Amino acid sequence: MSIPFGNPLLQVSPFASDGGAVIGRDPRDIQSDDWRGNPFLIGLKAIRAKCLDCAFDAKEVRKCVQTDCPLWPLRMGTVPKGFNQARQEAEFSEVTEERLTIAARMGAEKNAPSTDQNVAEMSK
User: Fold this and answer.
1) CB-based contacts of 49: which residues, under 8 Å, 6+ apart?
2) Nearest 5 degrees, angle CA 10-CA 19-CA 13?
3) 3-state secondary structure at position 30
4) pLDDT digits (tens, 9 = 90+) for 18-74
5) Domain locations in the chain?
6) Whole-structure pTM value
7) Quick one: which of 23, 62, 88, 109 could link to 13 by a disulfide (CB 3.0–4.6 Å)?
8) Strands, E, within 1-124: which ranges?
9) How far is Cα 12 from Cα 65, in angstroms, rounded to an integer?
């Protein structure tokens, strides 16, 4: 495999529709030797680095107004106050709604008249 631009994380696209364009390799297929020389940022450090890449300046990251970006709440490189509690409450609310829906279905099935009762009522 040829290495475009000397970057082992890139490859010439094997897809005809890409017309030979350079694309990023599938990270699941990259051997350990090819990762050498690349930053190993994970979690909040990786998010902060991406935000700095997007905004170009720490001041601009702080002022970011892209609140629909999934990284926005974590852009400062820390978990904000109240974030975990709000996330847990949202998850609890979803689980509770799901349980109530299941319970309502089970109750409806349990309280539904049997076929024999329906037939008896219809023949009256």
Assistant:
1) 39, 41
2) 25
3) coil
4) 998 999 999 999 999 888 888 888 899 999 999 999 999 999 999 999 999 999 999
5) 1-38, 40-78, 83-112
6) 0.54
7) 23
8) 10-12, 22-24
9) 36
Place of tokens 């974590």: 74
Structural tokens at position 83: 């974030």
Instruction: Return d(Cα 110, Cα 96) in angstroms, integer.
Output: 21
Helices (H) and strands (E) in the chain, counts: 5, 2
Task: Identify the helix (H) or strand (E) that includes residue 24.
Answer: strand 22-24
According to DSSP, the residues that pair with 12 across neighbouring strands are 22
| Nearest C-alpha neighbor of 5 from the set 27, 21, 26, 29 | 21
Letter for the amino acid at 32? S
**Contact, 25 vs 10, CB < 8 A?**
yes
Residue 100: both structure tokens together = 């109530």
- Residues 112 and 118: beta-carbon distance below 8 Å: no
